[in-house]
## 1
Amino acid sequence: MEEIVRVPIPPDEINRLKTSIGDQTERRKAFIFGHGLWSDLDRQKTVDWLDTILRTIRGMTGSDWHGLFVTPNAAGKGKPDQWIVSQGNKALMLYEEAIGIEVAKRGIEHLGTWNMSIQANKYDGVHLDMRGNLVKAMMVLNWLNLLDD
C-alpha cells in the first residue's frame, strides 16, 4: 500500500511504488486507487497523478493487471462551510462523473461511492463511520472476486 498524495509525484515515492509492484514474473496484479480530497477535486490534477502512476505500473507489469479507481464519498451535513463550494455534494457528483469517464479511457474500472454514501453517517462531515467503510470494503472485495472468474 502506497500513499501518494501530490503532483508532481516525487521520485522517491515513485521508487517506493516500483518496489511495491515487484517484478513481472509474479502472478497477475490488481491495483486499487483510492482518491480522497487532497486534490480539492481538481480533475486535471487527478488525471496527471493517475497518468504518472499508470506509466509506472505499465512499465513494470505490461498489460497483465487490473485497476479500480474509488472516488470520494458524499459530504455530510457537518462539512465545514468553507469547503461546501469546492468539496460539497454537487462538486463531488460532478467530479465522480468526470473521473469515471477519464479512468474508463485508461482501461480502469470505477467505483463511485457518492450514491452509496449520501445517507450514511459522516461524524465530521467528511469521513464515513465504520459501517460505511465496511460497505466500501465489501464492494472492493466483490470486485476482486470478479477478477478470478
## 2
Amino acid sequence: MGSTFSGLNTALTSLYAQRRGLDVTGQNIANASTEGYTRQRVRMVANNGGLNPGVYSTTDQVGAGVKVASLERGRSGYLEERGRTEHGNAAYLANQTAAYSQIEDVFAEPSDTAIQARMHDMWDAWNDVANNWQDPSTRSSLIERATTVATSLNDAQASLSNQFTANGNEMSTYADQVNTLATNIAKMNQIVVAKQANLQPNEMMDDRDRAVMQLAELAGATTIEQPNGALNVFLGQGPLVAGFTARQVKVVGPPTLDGISATSQVGLQWTDTGGAVAAGGAMGSMIDTMNTVIPNITAQLDKVAQKLADTVNVQHRGGYSADGTTDLDFFTGEVDATVVTAKSIKVAVSDPAQVAFSSQNPISSDPNVAGSINHDVADKLTDIGASGTGPDQTYQQMIGQLGVAAQASGRRSDIQNSVRDQVDTDRTAESGVNLDEEMTNLLTYQRGYEAASRVLTTVDSMLDQLINRTGLVGR
C-alpha cells in the first residue's frame, strides 16, 4: 500500500519543479532584450512509482511526483545553420555592392569634371587649334587640357590602387578577428565538460552561437554539432575549430595592385599546412574584389589610356608643328609611347610650338607650301571624339559594364537581404522571448507552486491528526 508519507514527497517534488519553472521564466523575462539570447524551457517528467514486484507486497501508489528532466533551448539546428548561410551570403553581396559603389565614385560619371567630360574638352581644344593654329594660346590650352585628361587617368588608377590596399589592410584585420573567434569557440566547447557534469551551459551556448554567426559573416563559416555538444566549425571544407582545437589563418598575396597577376593573387591560407582557405562572407568578397573586380577595371582603364595614346600619336607623328617639328608623340608612357597605362600616361609635348596640326611644314622653303598651310591633322584629331572606335567609345563601354555590374550586385544584395531577414524572423520566432507567453508561464508555475504548497499543508494536517490526535477508544 502507498504510504501517507509519500504524499509529502510528491508535493515536495512539485514545489522544487514549479520553483525551477519560475526561475527559468524569470531568466527569460530578464533577457527579453538581450541580443542573441535563446529562450529556455523547463521539461518536466513524472516520477514513476514502485515498479519492482514483491512476493508478499503490492502498491497502489500512482507515482512519485515530478522532476525537471532538462532545461531546453528554443533553438532549431536547421534554422541556425540556414541563418549562418544566409548571413554569409548577405555579407558577401553587401561587400561586393560597397566595392562597386567605391569604384563608381572614382569615375563619378556622368559629371562635368569626370574623365569623359575632360576628353570632350580636349577634343574641343584640338578644334580651337584647327580654327586658329597661328595663336599659341590655343596650343597652350590644348596641352593643359590634355594634361588634365592624363592626370585624371593617373588619379583614377591611383584611387583603384588605394582601394586595393585598403581592402588588403582590412583583410588582415578580419583574419585576426577570425583567429580570435576560432580560439574563443574552441574554449567555449568546454560545454562538453559541463554537460557531462549535468550542468546547464545554455548561456555559454548562446555566446558560442553569436561567435559562429560572426564567423559566418566574416568568412562564410559552417558548422557541424557533435553528439557530445561540441561545435566543429569549417571554412569551405577545411576545419577551423575541431573540439577544443582551433586553427589559424593568414592573408597571403601581393600587397599592391601592381603585383596582381594570373599567378600571383590574394588569398587566405592555413598557417599550419599552408593550404588555401575557401572563404566566403565579407572576406570572400574582398578576395574576389582584389583578384578580379579591381584588376579588371584597371585593365580596361589601361586600354582607354593606350587607345587614347595610339589614336592621337598616329596622327600627331605624321603632322608638322609651328616650328616645323614632326614625328613627335603627343602622349607617352613611363618609357615610351609603345606601352601606355592609366598609371603612366602623360603628355609628351610641353612646348606649344611643337604641337603638330598640319600635314604640311609651316616653315617649308617652298613658298607654295608655306603660303597654303592647312590644319588637316588638327581636324582629324577633333573628329576622334565623335568616332565610334575612338578612346571615348572604349571608355563609355567600360563605364557601361561597370554600371551594369554594380546594378546587378545591388539587386542581388537587396534580394539576399530579404531572404536573410525572413530567415531571421523564423529564427526569432523559434528562439526569441515572447513576454506574453512568459507571463502565462509565470502564472502557471505560480499556481502550481501554490497548489503544491496546499497539498503539502493538507498532508501535514492529516498526519498531525493521525499521529498526535488519535487515541485508544475506551481506555
## 3
Amino acid sequence: MRINQKNELLNNPTKAGIILRPSSPELKESYSKIKELFEEIGIEVVLEDNSAKMIKEKGISLEDLCHEVDFLISVGGDGTLLSVVRRSFKYDKPVLGINLGTLGFLTDINMDELDKFVKDFQNKTYRIDNRMMVQGSLNLNSFVAFNDIVISRKSISSMISLDAKIDGKPFNSYYGDGVIISTPTGSTAYNLSVGGPLVYPLTEAFIITPVAPHSLTQRPLVMPADFEIEFNITDTQGAVVIVDGQDIYELEQNETIKIKIAKQKAKMIHRVERNYFDVLNEKLRWGN
C-alpha cells in the first residue's frame, strides 16, 4: 500500500533559526548568504549561540531560539541535521537541511539550489515530511533517536549476549557484535552497512538488525512500530548503547533498555522535487 501524508505547510512563517555545523568557522560566508536570501522574502533570521560564537556573530540559546522561530535551518551535512532534529525535537519545529558536502540521504538542498528553493518556499512550493522517531529508556535516562539505537559490545575482543522481548514476551536471544534498532529513516545508515533492509522513510516500523551474529539463523526483522521492544543485557561485561552515533550510555549485566515509537514525529522540510528513489539511485549507484 502506498503511504500518503497530508502536506501541512507553515502558516506564514516570519522567523527562522539557524544552526551551523560545529568547528566550521568557514561557514560564515554561507550563513550570510542564507540570511540574505531569507530576509529578501521577509523572514528574519536568528542564529543559535554556539554557531554565533564560532563565526563572531550575535546569537541566542537553542531553547530560546526554538521558542521564537517558526522553523529551523541546519547548515552542514546529515550529522549536523541529526543533532539539530534531536536537540529541537520537543519543540516540534520543522527543520530544513542545507547540505554543504555531497548529496546526503537527509539533507537535499545545496547552496547552488538555495536561491530557487527560497523562492519556492515563498510560494509555498515545498513539503514537510513527518518522520518516525524512536524513544529509548534505560535506568533514569530517556532519549530519542532519529536514525538508530545501537546496543554494542564493550570490548572489541569479545561478543555480546542479549535477550529480547516484544511487548513483554520473549522472542529472541542475540550473540554477536551487537544489535541495531533502526527507524525507516535510519535504514540507509549503519543498518544498511551490515546488510539490513532499506525501508521507505515514511513507513512506521522498527528494523532490528544483528551485527555480525554468531549464528547464521539470525536475520534482520522489520516489525510494526506499535510494539515495545526490550533488550536485557545477559553479558557479564555489560554493553554500550549508542544513540544516532552521537550519545553513549553504559549498561551493566541484567540491566534493560526499552524502545518504542515516540509520540510525535520529526518534521523535515524538503523540495517538492525530492524523490527518495532518485536519492537511492545516486547514492547507491543503482543501475550504473
